[in-house]
Specification:
This protein has 597 residues and is mainly α. The protein is 76% helix and 0% strand. Its main location: nucleus.
């Protein structure tokens, strides 16, 4: 091993001598490079190889290359690159090859090699890297796309890119992304050839030696890709993705027409097809020249375009009366309404249109929970409060088991300060099961705190503890404790705490809240704090290290505390804590003893 390392270090000497001779590095720096290289070489020649050692070595060589580059820029010396940089680059490629040969499954390592090749313009080496990487990671479409893009955009080789895409499709015959990028590549190739031909014709050059196929120039290769893809991959999203790519090129009108006709023929019942056809009316209008038009004319034209879109959507909801279709229609209307405009007339029309569509969807019983929420918000924002109340009531009739719908209706009533809030709460509790009612109880008690008497609010808290699921009652206990302290004082909250402790489950915050309340008293008693800590530890002592540490801190810092109890608490903690928590507790306790916690 030593002989091999010595040989590799000797191979470095010519480049290092050149660095010193041309004044890029000093003799002292050359020795430092040799020492570092020797240490790194020993690490990668060991029997038990580590990936980190190769990465560190590569990083060192890359940093060395960057330093040489900066020194050249500073001194203005640009010769001897073949003797200096070339040998370092070859060494880095060798390190990458060894590393990727050993850890073949590490994609990030391969991508690092690819990035290095791109950075230093090593095209021939990069081609080899892609070839080897794709042989091993043929199951990753993204790598095939990366390689094909590089062939097309950097090496300007459409044939190589096409060959890679065809190979990739043999491995992934139903990968939408591969087909999309292949489709894009063929269109880019056609555009490139069209530009070349145009430039040659403008220069009046003879095109005899250049073979420009009319089929390729007209995008026929892309058409073949599209037809093959549409047979294998179903779905409107894929068709629309190809159509959006085709629209980026100005010579694909016939291809766009074919995709559109196929879309309408094969997916006539899909909401996304109708959504696209409706939104297309906006684009068709925007293609017309709009120079020298007045503001009023622009508003009028935009109104007409939007009305054409809505006419298509109206036809769509008749042809495909589904919840998704109404969602597409409403989403379009909301998008248009939220667009900024200086015309109050246009904004008012958009609002009326949107509210009308919401109403029609509601009458068809095809409005989702989320859309009811958006409808309500729009009504409230537009100051239609009475209508908002009606819509909220209708929403709870349609979704009587939805806590979110009831919560939304109640929030509207509370916001408008209606008299029937309590009645609505009672109605909600009749329809809802105990599970999932926590948001409603939380809202009810918060509203009651600001509206009803203390007695009514307390009765409501008591009722909520029995009406909610055990896991949800934990939150209500915390809120009840906090409200009682704020409104009824320390003695009452202490009695309540004792009462609530009779029924599990509890949360840690419940106990911490009571501990905090005790600490806020002028005559804070350690006896009471011990009681609260002991109760908390019975529930959470096996899973929470901080609780034990806080207890110990309390004994050490409280005027009535007993530091001699700390040893006993520590011993109990070591017995109760589970698994890795013991080690965590020991380290934190040590920090506490040394005054670092």
């Amino acid at each position: 091993m030593a002989e091999r390392i010595e040989q590799r270090l000797e191979d470095r000497i010519p480049e290092l001598e050149q660095l010193e001779r041309v004044g890029l590095f000093t003799r002292k720096e050359i020795r430092a490079v040799l020492r570092k290289a020797s240490a790194l070489e020993y690490k990668i020649q060991r029997r038990a190889l580590r990936k980190e050692d190769f990465i560190n070595y590569i990083q060192y060589e890359v940093n060395l290359l960057e330093l040489i580059k900066k020194r050249r820029a500073r001194t203005g010396y640009s010769f001897k690159k073949e003797e200096i940089e070339h040998s370092i680059l070859q060494r880095v490629h060798g390190l990458f090859n060894r590393a990727t040969g050993k850890w073949k499954d590490d994609v990030q390592l391969w991508l690092s090699h690819v990035a290095f090749c791109k950075q230093w313009n090593a095209k021939q080496q990069l081609s080899k890297v892609f070839s080897t990487m794709l042989a091993i990671h043929s199951n990753k479409p993204a790598l095939w796309i990366m390689a094909a893009k590089w062939e097309m955009e950097t090496r300007l080789s459409s044939e190589s890119a096409r060959h890679l895409f065809l190979r990739a499709l043999r491995f992934h015959p139903e990968c939408p992304k591969l087909y999309q990028e292949y489709f894009r590549m063929e269109l880019m190739n056609a555009e490139k050839q069209r530009k070349e031909k145009k430039e040659f014709e403008q220069a009046k050059m003879d095109l005899g030696e250049f073979n420009y196929s009319e089929e390729i120039l007209n995008g026929e290769m892309a058409r073949i890709v599209y037809r093959d893809a549409s047979q294998k991959i179903k779905g409107v999203e894929f068709q629309l993705a190809l159509l959006s790519i085709a629209k980026l090129f100005d010579f694909t009108q016939d291809l766009q027409k074919e995709i559109l006709e196929s879309l309408q023929a094969r997916y006539a019942d899909d909401p996304l097809t109708w959504d696209y056809m409706a939104r297309r009316e906006l684009e068709l209008g925007s293609l017309q020249p709009t120079e020298h038009t007045t503001k009023q004319k622009k508003v009028s034209e935009m109104t007409q375009r939007e009305e054409r879109c809505c006419a298509v959507f109206d036809e769509a909801v008749r042809a495909v009366p589904t919840e998704d279709m109404w969602k597409c229609y409403i989403t379009f209307c909301l998008e248009r309404y939220n667009r900024k405009t200086n015309s109050e007339e246009l904004k008012q029309k958009r609002l009326e249109r949107t509210l009308s569509v919401f109403r029609k969807a509601h009458e068809s019983s095809l409005l989702s929970e989320a859309l009811y929420k958006q409808w309500l918000q729009l009504l409230l924002d537009s100051s239609f409060s009475e209508k908002a109340v009606e819509v909220a009531e209708a929403a709870t009739r349609h979704f009587s088991q939805s806590a979110e719908m009831w919560q939304m209706r109640l929030q509207v009533l509370i916001q408008l300060k209606r008299d029937d809030v309590t009645q609505c709460f009672e109605e909600a509790m009749k329809h809802m099961e105990s599970k999932g009612t926590l948001p409603l109880w939380t809202l009810w008690v918060e509203w009651s705190e600001g509206t009803n008497s203390k007695e009514d609010t307390e009765a409501l808290y008591q009722r909520s503890l029995h009406a909610t699921m055990p896991a949800e009652s934990v939150t209500m206990k915390e809120m009840y404790l906090d409200w009682t302290y704020r409104n009824c004082g320390y003695k009452k909250v202490k009695r309540l705490f004792t009462s609530l402790c009779e029924n599990r489950p509890f949360s840690l915050d419940f106990f911490r809240k009571m501990i905090q309340i005790e600490k806020e008293q002028e005559s804070c008693k350690m006896l009471h704090l011990r009681e609260y800590y002991e109760r908390a530890l019975r529930e959470f002592g096996s899973t929470n290290t901080d609780l034990w540490l806080d207890y110990i801190k309390e004994e050490l810092s409280h005027p009535q505390g007993k530091p001699e109890n700390c040893g006993s608490i520590h011993w109990r903690a070591m017995k109760m804590l589970q698994g890795d928590l013991v080690e965590d507790f020991v380290s934190k306790y040590t920090l506490l003893q040394t005054g670092h916690l």
